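in:
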């Protein structure tokens, strides 16, 4: 009987369950059916870290393999992850107490020798300040991960001794040797900047460090007809409601999965978006058709806390599940345009502009802080472009047939 080892894994700024086993097609198929994916970076299979994924793995593997009872804890941090609400999980080969599953997992393994002791202390101060400043969990993960990459690159050199010139050399290395994209370099500069200016208190320390120019990329948009084809291709009522709501209200995927039943105000025909990006609340209107769809969905599924529940009660559906729904619907509808759930948000804003809705109102609906973020949709709307005729039209009668 094969042995499968489950242990914590931090991959692509997300907390995951690493699944390790010798090459075996049968075990691989089980893992894939549980939503497992292969990571070239870590040379292992993995799935998201949550209650549903953990139980699904345990149940699918039970009796077929030996599951090594390694604790899902490589060292300890203040980030608590609850994997179970039961006191004990028992399978044919593994019994684990709940106290072992309510684990603290770090962003960085303290035993890693690629970072010197002084810089490990700097990392601890860094993350502590992020938490004290009440940055979102996503920002804490991103900044911490980028700062760790910086600390690993400088090895035994103390981070607090670096001058702006040495930092320029490092960011040049990121561009020319690591070939990081402009967006990733911007993110890393922001993370390292936070350390020197906020943790060490070196005001305006980064003024001399130039930032790479970001390419101007237009939002990816699909037409109203393609939106209709996309929605019509979905047969599952729950999935159809999710996609319709995301488009109808211009929601981010994180906002969709976080919606609670109480956030739907049927009497006022409003949807309350709670603690969205930047910890901002906002309200968006619900069209009569969307409200009818939501009421029908509620009668069929009867969600209790979260509007779109996952496998277990009181847990929301994962973002990856929703992205998978959209990906399959696009393939079935024959839509070639690239893009994830944000494609629906971009299309929502562009179609409102096409209808002549003022960009300021669209800014409020999308929850943008800066009007410049909303103005990018002016580059993809066809509201005015359709009225502009090519000069070719003026000479067409003169052209030889």
């Amino acid at each position: 009987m094969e042995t499968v080892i489950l242990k914590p894994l931090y991959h692509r700024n997300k907390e995951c369950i690493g699944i390790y086993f010798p090459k075996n097609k049968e075990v691989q198929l089980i893992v894939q059916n549980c939503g497992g994916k292969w990571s070239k970076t870590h040379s292992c299979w993995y799935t998201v870290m949550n209650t549903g994924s953990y139980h699904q793995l345990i149940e699918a593997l039970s009796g077929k393999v030996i599951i090594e009872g390694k604790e899902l804890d490589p060292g300890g941090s203040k980030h608590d992850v609850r994997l179970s609400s039961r006191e004990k999980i028992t399978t044919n080969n593994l019994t684990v107490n709940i106290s072992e599953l309510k684990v603290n997992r770090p962003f960085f393994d303290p035993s890693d020798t690629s970072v010197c002791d002084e810089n490990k202390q700097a990392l601890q101060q860094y993350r502590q300040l992020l938490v004290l400043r009440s940055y979102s969990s996503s920002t804490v993960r991103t900044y911490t991960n980028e700062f760790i990459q910086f600390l690993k690159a400088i090895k035994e050199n103390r981070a607090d001794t670096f001058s702006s010139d040495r930092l320029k050399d490092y960011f040049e290395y990121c561009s020319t040797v690591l070939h990081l994209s402009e967006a990733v370099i911007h993110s890393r500069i922001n993370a390292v900047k936070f350390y020197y200016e906020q943790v060490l208190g070196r005001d305006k320390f980064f003024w001399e460090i130039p930032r790479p120019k970001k390419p101007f990329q237009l939002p990816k948009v699909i037409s109203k007809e393609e939106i209709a084809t996309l929605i019509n291709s979905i047969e599952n009522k729950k999935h159809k409601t999710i996609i319709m709501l995301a488009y109808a209200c211009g929601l981010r995927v994180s906002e969709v999965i976080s919606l609670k039943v109480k956030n739907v105000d049927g009497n006022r025909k409003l949807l309350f978006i709670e603690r969205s990006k930047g910890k901002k609340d906002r309200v968006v209107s619900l069209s009569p058709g969307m409200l009818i769809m939501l009421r029908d969905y509620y009668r069929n599924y009867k969600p209790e806390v979260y509007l779109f529940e996952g496998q277990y009660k009181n847990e929301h559906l994962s973002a990856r599940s929703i992205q998978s729904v959209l990906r399959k619907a696009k393939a079935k509808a024959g839509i070639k345009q690239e893009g994830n759930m944000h494609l629906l948000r971009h299309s929502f804003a562009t179609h409102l502009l096409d209808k002549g809705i003022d960009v300021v109102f669209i800014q409020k609906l999308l929850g943008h802080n800066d009007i410049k973020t909303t103005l990018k949709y002016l580059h993809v709307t066809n509201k005015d472009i359709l009225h502009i005729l090519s000069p070719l039209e003026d000479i067409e009668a003169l052209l030889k047939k």
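note: The chain has a mean pLDDT of 82.
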